[in-house]
Amino acid sequence: MSGSYLARLTDDLEAISSHYAQRHGIHRDSSRFLLKVHEELGELTQAYLMRTGQARDKGHTPAELDQAFRSELADVLCQLLLLARHHDVDLQAEINHKWMPHHPAREPSQP
Question: What is the DSSP string of 8-71?
């Protein structure tokens, strides 16, 4: 991932996460990274349910609900990037390996 936007973003996220953990005395291990993904996914689910009227809105406006949904999407992505970094997984390479071969422009045309 070195040099890519994703790598630079992950470097920034690591600096933020590491600083936060040091400031609050949090030990970051494999469990912590995975649990944070789960925590943020739960918050995303709650934001989605509130935004779509499947849970009470707790007095939030539609604009606030939309903003919460967008923010939680970002949190999930950031925590996934940190989890991958912790386990030395090059997500860009994995995406290229698993997803990109199925891009319509790369698949042979059907008769």
Answer: HHHHHHHHHHHHHHHHHT----HHHHHHHHHHHHHHHHHHHHHHTTSS--TT--HHHHHHHHHH
